[in-house]
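[stage:ingest] chain + small molecule (zinc ion)
[stage:ingest] validated
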Amino acid sequence: MYLQRTIRKQVSVKGVGLHTGEPAQLNFCPAPADTGIYFVRKDLPGAPAIAARAQFVKATQLATTLGGDAFSISTVEHCLSALAAFRIDNLFIELEGPEIPICDGSAKHFVEALLEAKMVEQESARKYAYISQPIYYGTDEKHAYVTPYNGFRITCTIDFPHPKIGRQTIDLDINEHSYTRLIANARTFGFLRDVEALQAKGLARGGSLENAIVLDAHSVVNKEGLRYADEFVRHKVLDALGDLVTLGMPLMGHLVLYKAGHDVMNQLVRKIIASPESYRHIELGTDLYDYRLEDHHLWAFT
Ligand SMILES: [Zn+2]
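[stage:predict] done
[stage:export] tokens:
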């Protein structure tokens, strides 16, 4: 049986907030079994906390923002992505402001912090959402869906009318090794014309060539170039993994994305939660094989 995980000791990640441009820091802190993932605003009276769950996602433009009327926490997806890859079930993420540090625009610094903190298993079994029938959200233009799969796999396609991007597809099984090697270092990206428009509105003040790939009309502006030829689609996988954490438990299934951003991912996660007939809660290492036999002939798109 696979057990839940937290980290062994508290660790910090420092940087700037993408939108405020102000210094931002987070602390990853161990949490008891069956807690889940919580963000804690230490700078506010009473240190309010919010669970990393789909129903608390209040904005999905540019980044995923959690919150309610009183406070918010933005750009949560890169940090959550690293937690998903390392299968951290329980964690308090303490913040002194409204933003997660953007770091270099990838999940590299969060992965390094988790490796420094070291993972520890807890006494409770981890529960997975085992997809037994397909769940689809979107349109022909952009969509995401999950289908049954004995593992966790992502197929992601993007298509941007830009000479350095174009159509890119990646298909891989996700585990901490594939994630660290192929996904974690892929940076977020933006177009120069959009960055200028955002900054004119007082947004993305912390955005720079230090924390994003920036593209002008023809090429990549960053002097160092790309980390991978298909860094763009790899970053979309990174984002999707982070957004999927808001399901509240790891997924057993195949996630397929077509031009899907944070909005589509949030709607897909909400739809999974609202479709209890299409998945089961299972503990892995027990009766997975039986589920596979039972489900094998069940699913087909209609
Ligand atoms: Zn991102």
